[in-house]
Amino acid sequence: MMEIIHLDFPLSNGGVEPLCAWKITGRESGPVFAAIAEQHGNELNGCAAIRNFVRKYENGLKRGTFIGIPFANPFALRLRMPSSDLGGGRPYIESARNMQTLWNETDGNEIARLAAFWWNHILKDADYLVDLHCYPEFYAPMVAVRPDPKWEKLGYAAAMPLIRCIKREDDWKGSLRYKAESAGKISIGVELSGQYDLSDREIDRGMRVLENLAAEFGLLDEMPHPPTEKPVEIRNRTDISAPAAGLFIHHPGLKVGKRVKKGDPLGFILRSETLEEVPVTAPESGIISVLGGRADCDVTLSARHRYVFLDERIIAIIPC
After folding, report:
1. Phi/psi at 101 (nearest 5 deg)?
2. Is the pTM of this model over 0.70?
3. What is the 3-state secondary structure (H, E, C) of 226-240?
4. Sheet holding 265-270, edge to edge
5. pLDDT tens readout for residues 69-96
6. Residue/partner pairs of 48-53 with CB below 8 Å, 24 or more apart
7. For the chain, what is the radius of gyration of the CA atoms?
């Protein structure tokens, strides 16, 4: 059975912000599994993945309870920006309202209070949490877990190409993952690929993550999409620098998450001054984790530009 939870978040100006979440109750008792998306207003694929899960299982959940929060941060969503205080090309790190850093704040701005509101009214009752984010499209999708067998098993079940094991002491203290673990819960961080837009591929990937983990948590009897190969753990990264200045044109079919072998052609630099084509090849075998782009490209279009300078990173490979 599916219902919609309606909540009124009190604003500092005396008004209220309406919030909603889906709740599906299974046919048998069991654990509570919560999924949250759109902590950042430009990360949309997780919202659609949660919606698809709800539509498929609104009358078909075997046991337990699923709670889906598709719009965790409506303030940033309406501005179409990562956080509600960003704009004009400012990077994530300059935000004082980055929701992912505010889950352990006891008193703070509107977004810190919003995180506390979601926790106190919804998330504190969950046994398992999945936090859906979206990297820029030139970063490969990834799942983040603790370096512990019970966590890693869930990371493998997510069927993502890359898995990152983050020690608690190295994690963001303000993250939802850190907050949930402090409360004795299991929380998995997922980074889909692509911001500001919806991708059928990434929505399907997010849906696959939710279904597989629902099975691991006991809400479903069978895993709908068993992993076909073990994900590659991110232990180190090989950066490939531009051999010349010019326009980087990747090899047809090359994309993030793709496995390549040592010596494979990756593309070339078309030098603007001479029109010379300078080839770029894979220095070792691995998975493409970065393809073009620079940090914080989501808030400045010029950072996505494929014109590169000598020795600037153009590709990164996770060896495997």
Report:
1. -110, 5
2. yes
3. CCCCCCEECCCCEEE
4. 277-281, 265-270, 246-250, 307-308
5. 999 999 999 998 899 988 766 777 788 8
6. 48/198, 48/203, 48/206, 49/132, 49/192, 49/202, 49/203, 49/204, 49/205, 49/206, 49/207, 49/209, 49/210, 50/22, 50/132, 50/206, 50/210, 52/203, 52/207, 53/207, 53/210, 53/211, 53/214
7. 21
